[in-house]
């Protein structure tokens, strides 16, 4: 029987995952060559230098010496506009303070229109808002600069809470991509880092052209999974077909593409020094996609691309695109690389190289190039035209988007679709990981087999995801030893993900190898003490090691860095509750007053009130939590259980019905309603739905186990 008492030990977020922010290797690495003054590079590399000088990379950070006036409003006497970050189509001003902090102001300059505009007009007059430019979300020292200068060093000083940040070169210079040039300059030899290999080149570009949390600063010959936690294909970041949704840059979409699978890399299309296309408009595509099917690459780097599947066809013709020559619809990029606007005016193109399919887009609720361009026409007209022009068109993803959509929406066949895709093993690793991430909602022996295999998968994307989804499918007795093995994984991102999962499970880290991994995780946090998250992660380690006083110190330090940081607010309240329940409760009440729209705080306060015997007040807070986050199934689940335990059975079941209608993939909602309901027809209907979703569910043949 589900009981509220069982839930009160849950974290206030309802999730055991802790996000790792970290940044410096603990593993021994050989000393790298020295960083040098890049002004000498032009002596031997004149052409590359000339191409680079007017590039976005070269001007990624420049002095704020505009001729036009900076309308920044009221600045403190000690605040000075010192840098412009970005080049085109917008520039933000970095404001320097005496403590070394560089804050990105909310006003940005639109270079084409030569006007200023406000990136966050809704918070401009509220300095306490988390998105106000003076808050830590806009602290360039920790959020921006590593991708706008070469050899960036944060150099946070914990004792004085100041920054002495430094860099080798303004903008993204030679050594940002090629690595330190000390040996190269001394003897004319090569670099430690070779960019000839397509994968190595992509790894270097991904350092900044990806959505990621930094684990390590740039290091030559170190892959992305040794330096970063790259964001997966989550529903809030990418569309269900893999196209970009939130500000994720290029890497995550590109590694899904057939171009990437064939060995194409960034410099095949972009001049790596100027950043411009190798050829104008469609010509960059016709390097490979031409009537003869004969590739004529402009790039002179010797590499291997698999052209076996390259079709010889005339693409730049109305017979292919059905639009007038030289029109917008005749441009390859508009159909196969649709863009989104970020930061007010910055158009960025998707790099998964998708093909339009308006019928699928309507069915799966993702964007589409045809529908996007022709918004003035009925969607049915677009679908009919596309079917007429391309009668044999089929989705080119092997059914990936449809399987993922059915799983996320809780539609019949969801489990079978996921398992079919995973068992076929034909998807790129990042997509394989996205499919694997959904299996937690659809338990079965086959799902366990896929996740267990994922723990030893050759790709780090998949191993990380398997670590995160495994607790939903396995009992701790089996899982903990498996996760412990991954503490010795060759990829830093996998090791740290395993540490986080074990920390969330209160794992003791007793073995020597386990202790070493925990020490590595802890040392990584030392390089992020300028952020609230670094201190918060340290508090988790301190708690595991039994250093109670250090837990409070770390949590308070986190809040000193960012008073709005919700995990630290909740963590400190839970820590205080052990000795002073009233103070703990007051902390959350105050936090709620300051962040009235934060459902996480309302939820934490609700659980605390119930733990302290204040059921009525706790229920009120749970109701408020659900009102703030109606799409959060976990909050509705806990509210329903609290209502049921409080004797409000019908209200509990109504809450479950509403939540289940919004999130039919959430198995625990369906099973809770099945358990609570006395209506035999409703119970049969719920079990039928479960069977349609996942015929392999272990409860279908033995519901009495629940």
Automatic annotation (TrEMBL):
<feature type="domain" description="Doubled CXXCH motif">
    <location>
        <begin position="265"/>
        <end position="292"/>
    </location>
</feature>
<keyword id="KW-0732">Signal</keyword>
<dbReference type="InterPro" id="IPR019734">
    <property type="entry name" value="TPR_rpt"/>
</dbReference>
<feature type="signal peptide">
    <location>
        <begin position="1"/>
        <end position="20"/>
    </location>
</feature>
<feature type="domain" description="Cytochrome c-552/4">
    <location>
        <begin position="41"/>
        <end position="68"/>
    </location>
</feature>
<dbReference type="Pfam" id="PF09699">
    <property type="entry name" value="Paired_CXXCH_1"/>
</dbReference>
<feature type="repeat" description="TPR">
    <location>
        <begin position="599"/>
        <end position="632"/>
    </location>
</feature>
<dbReference type="InterPro" id="IPR011989">
    <property type="entry name" value="ARM-like"/>
</dbReference>
<protein>
    <submittedName>
        <fullName>Cytochrome c554/c'-like protein</fullName>
    </submittedName>
</protein>
<dbReference type="InterPro" id="IPR036280">
    <property type="entry name" value="Multihaem_cyt_sf"/>
</dbReference>
<feature type="domain" description="Cytochrome c-552/4">
    <location>
        <begin position="137"/>
        <end position="179"/>
    </location>
</feature>
<dbReference type="InterPro" id="IPR016024">
    <property type="entry name" value="ARM-type_fold"/>
</dbReference>
<dbReference type="InterPro" id="IPR011990">
    <property type="entry name" value="TPR-like_helical_dom_sf"/>
</dbReference>
<dbReference type="InterPro" id="IPR023155">
    <property type="entry name" value="Cyt_c-552/4"/>
</dbReference>
<dbReference type="Pfam" id="PF13435">
    <property type="entry name" value="Cytochrome_C554"/>
</dbReference>
<dbReference type="InterPro" id="IPR021133">
    <property type="entry name" value="HEAT_type_2"/>
</dbReference>
<dbReference type="Pfam" id="PF14561">
    <property type="entry name" value="TPR_20"/>
</dbReference>
<dbReference type="InterPro" id="IPR051829">
    <property type="entry name" value="Multiheme_Cytochr_ET"/>
</dbReference>
<dbReference type="InterPro" id="IPR010177">
    <property type="entry name" value="Paired_CXXCH_1"/>
</dbReference>
<keyword id="KW-0802">TPR repeat</keyword>
